[in-house]
């Protein structure tokens, strides 16, 4: 299919060395035409998909600057040396915490596999890549805190069993930006799995698997936080696997959702609250007992006189298993951003059974080797 806007050079035509099937020339691939023609979800299900990130495992630092969406500028520790995690200890020489607290850029890799029990939040400073490829690392007890930092990439980790009030798997606040969370598995925390609040922005969450949890992703924490109007987040190719709610829940921010698979939620799939703008594109929503996918909550920003909810635009989404969209027609298109106003290209497919299969099996932590450094 033609693409008037074009993809970033070679985005979908590189030799693949990651965990997705090798792509072939796609039957549905485009940048952001104003009214794209979406194929029927039942057409050509046997064909391979055009998928993002086919080259990021070709060399160790090929991840840097390759995120799609709002987090596309995140370079992590691209310009720093390797830091080798050699112990599963919570702190001390060779620990993850010791690497993350250092102020210089670092590309952090692991020489061990296993569980790191965090006794307190692990703070990540700017210009860090935490690269779990080649090992299997699980963080438990507490989570990662990205506070007033920029250019952080978190890749191929597991998060499970965070305990305590306000304990999130990944907490991004305040004033953090240029963040990419890719190919992580997150489950069973006492609060959220990912929280993005307090004017943190330009963030992409991709290829993650969320399960066994209630409040999954929160974007914007309170209607009094009017500075959160700056928040911009892209969530794509993620699997929300029976998680109860917040896929995501949004206040104020602009959020682009595409090619995610959300199934068997307990309350709702996606929630738009005060002034939020959600562009839902070619996602798969598969209901369990609760049938309505989209929810609106009315709240009053502290600098406004009247309360309002947010806006959701659904384009090319598949609602299956009796799912009811629940869209409010009067605000579906009013005052809603289009992703092409902010980035020129992204990789999106029609919501087919083939896409669903890939999302089920190729999200979250993957057993992939750690790539070598480029020559």
TrEMBL record:
Q: Where is the Pectate lyase domain?
A: 93-291
Describe the reaction catalysed, as an equation.
Eliminative cleavage of (1->4)-alpha-D-galacturonan to give oligosaccharides with 4-deoxy-alpha-D-galact-4-enuronosyl groups at their non-reducing ends
Q: Where is this region: Disordered?
A: 1-47
Q: What is its EC number?
A: 4.2.2.2
> InterPro entries under this entry?
AmbAllergen, Pec_lyase, Pectin_lyas_fold, Pectin_lyase_fold/virulence, PEL
Q: Hey, which pathway is this one from?
A: Glycan metabolism; pectin degradation; 2-dehydro-3-deoxy-D-gluconate from pectin: step 2/5
Is-annotated flag, keyword Signal? yes
Cofactor: how bound: Binds 1 Ca(2+) ion. Required for its activity.
Sorted keywords for this record are: Calcium, Lyase, Metal-binding, Signal
Q: Name it.
A: Pectate lyase
Organism (species): Theobroma cacao
